[in-house]
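My current task is to audit a protein record that another person submitted. Alongside the sequence sits a line of tokens, each denoting a local backbone shape. Where you disagree with what is written, explain briefly why. This is what I was given:
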Amino acid sequence: MHISNGSVIINGRAIRHTERLTLMELSARFDEALVFASRLHAQQLRKGSAIPYISHLLSVAALVLENGGSEDDAIAALLHDAVEDQGGDATRQEIFRRFGPRVGEIVNGCTDADTLPKPPWQARKDAYIAHLQTATPSILLVSAADKLHNVRSLLKDYALVGEALWQRFKVGKERTLWYYRSLVEVYNARYPTPLTTELTRAFHELEALVADSPPPGNK
């Protein structure tokens, strides 16, 4: 949200100060999803850190709400990695049962694998990018919020550890950057919003930071 020409900009829509803003109250369903997500991911940490994984889920849910998402969108944000990381199809069925088909479908749309071992990385990412070409606005919202928080985390961590950051990723720097670059292109084409504008800016900042860094071993 930002202010321009006497209007408040929310999710790309200008709302004049004379219009009445309606508070979206989160219900007990959101509370239940928060507890469910926290318990599912209780033993999971952010990649290469000692940060509890729930921090990422809370950040994505916050971005979704700040960018006009509904309660269902925010619940799906809390659960967007649950199927992929915490139980596969059994967790999917539990999400549908507890939170309904709309939340379940958004979570499905943000999941690129539901089996262990996961399919090969490139095939999974190609399929996910293709899937986003026809995904619903809610899926695109949660997905873009997820990637924005990831890129912000990459920027912060790169400033701390430099090129050593890419050792956390099995596919290395170039393929990781390729994936985010491809996603940014899809979001901008299919879901041009302030959220995707911010994601684009953050990713370009990361690309520039990486390009300005000397190769490992050089000063």
